[in-house]
Amino acid sequence: MQDFLHKLPQFIGNHVALAALFAVLLAALIVVQLGELFSKTKVLTPAGLTQIINRDNPLLIDLSAITDFEKMHVPGARHVSMSQFDPENKDLAKARELPVVVMDKDGNGNSAKAAQRLVKAGFQKVYTLGGGVLSWQQAQLPVAKGNK
Fold first, then answer.
1. CB-based contacts of 138: which residues, under 8 Å, 6+ apart?
2. Taking every pair of C-alpha atoms in the chain, what is the biggest distance, in angstroms?
3. 30 and 47 fall within a common domain
């Protein structure tokens, strides 16, 4: 270990670009981890969503395109198009105390934006489904079809 510490400055001096790249990647990793740690929304795995469904009876909101929703969605999820998603809606406002899980087809769409809007509107327990409905299906959990 002593030998490593003595040779480290020489290595850094000989490989400045590599050392700088390592420092940038390390800083980015730390920022991302701190962001997730202090985020008011939490990302769920399919198993985590199953636990919340069984324990807390959450409101499930699916922001997928209607054609994707009709092909496959988490049972009990309600379809809402992003253009009509309004956290201030009086019906949605009644669910402020409930856990709310927002999802889309693949987890790369509007679910994170919608979750942030819910937090700004005062919702306390806001989650997103990591990987979206596709991750739910890949976990071999039951899916519903149709518009209900």
1. 46, 131
2. 67
3. no
- Whether 148 maps to a domain, the answer reads no
Domain span at 84: 41-138
What is the domain count for the chain?
2
Same domain, 29 and 52: no
Q: Judging by DSSP bridges, how do beta strands 100-103 and 59-62 pair with one another?
A: parallel
| Alpha-carbon gap, residue 90 to 70, rounded angstroms | 26
DSSP assignment, residue 65? -
One domain for residues 27 and 52: no
Pull the structure tokens for residue 25.
């990647």
Tell whether 31 and 83 lie within a shared domain. no
Quick: pLDDT tens for 76-113.
999 998 888 888 887 777 788 889 999 999 888 789 89
Other beta carbons less than 10 A from residue 61's beta carbon? 21
Contact 102, 37 (CB under 8 A): no
Query: What distance in Å separates the CA atoms of residue 108 and residue 50, rounded to the nearest whole number?
Result: 20
Non-local (6+) Cβ contacts of 42 within 8 A are 126, 127, 128
